[in-house]
């Protein structure tokens, strides 16, 4: 093997080895834990096996038939696991296990039957003329299905208005990377068989760069990443934060400040903003704007009753609302009536 071929072999094999390492990362170490990471790990594993077979077959045409069959069986599972990954990564609902268990079981049984009944060594023309074509056709069908799923996901209004841009770049890179690898293999009669392996190596390093250069990794890997980690705050600490929060908001009528923010209040309490946000959302079942609205509406109700000469609009500004519309909408959300209705009901 001359130097150029050695370099080609090294570059192709590097992608395979690193793909296996990245598969292990998604199996065991990717955070936050998510089912889609398991499917992505299997996708990378099968890609690495398929590409590894191509690399060794390209440089050793007499490769043992069992290794060829393992590589082609991995290729048989590429499309399904890309599709499963896309489904689980883009769905906000829990998906029942049989969806993928029975599906995968059927594909494995078909693969076992073909591999045991028609071994490569004895039926090489059958594999080269029919089975490989069928494998690539099935791969294409799943690529189309995954593409349709992505298209419908990113068309949804709730996704387009609050889309996770980094996740979109990530999953589209994985999808189109698979499309390019499929094209590389199916166009190899007009180019070179090793192009698929080289394409995988290139795409792998691009994906690795995305992971390494993204600061908020969980936003990259998930469409709707969990806001908080699974670690809970001790009940005694929650009680302390809730107590101090009440004192801070009441101190000098702090909630009346229209420029008040979660960060300012967290500094007053002496905790991190994300910890205060977790207490509000998880333990108090509200949000920072929600608790501010509660304090402001209560103050507004008191002013309406005690100062009937004040205009409703001035009371809203006095209580910390920065617009008439936000005062009316928050007041109605908390009381079920507008400030004018409340004033009339109070017989003022």
TrEMBL record:
Pfam families: HTH_18
Lineage: Bacteria, Pseudomonadati, Bacteroidota, Flavobacteriia, Flavobacteriales
Entry keyword Transmembrane helix: yes
UniProt keyword Transcription regulation present: yes
Regions crossing the membrane: 6-28, 40-60, 66-87, 99-118, 130-148, 169-187, 193-213
MF terms (GO), sorted A to Z: DNA-binding transcription factor activity; sequence-specific DNA binding
UniProt cross-references to SUPFAM superfamilies, sorted A to Z: Homeodomain-like (SSF46689)
Keywords tagged on the record: DNA-binding, Membrane, Transcription, Transcription regulation, Transmembrane, Transmembrane helix
Gene3D superfamilies associated with the record: Homeodomain-like
Record-given protein name: Helix-turn-helix domain-containing protein
SMART domains from the UniProt entry: HTH_ARAC (SM00342)
Domain called HTH araC/xylS-type: residue spans: 239-345
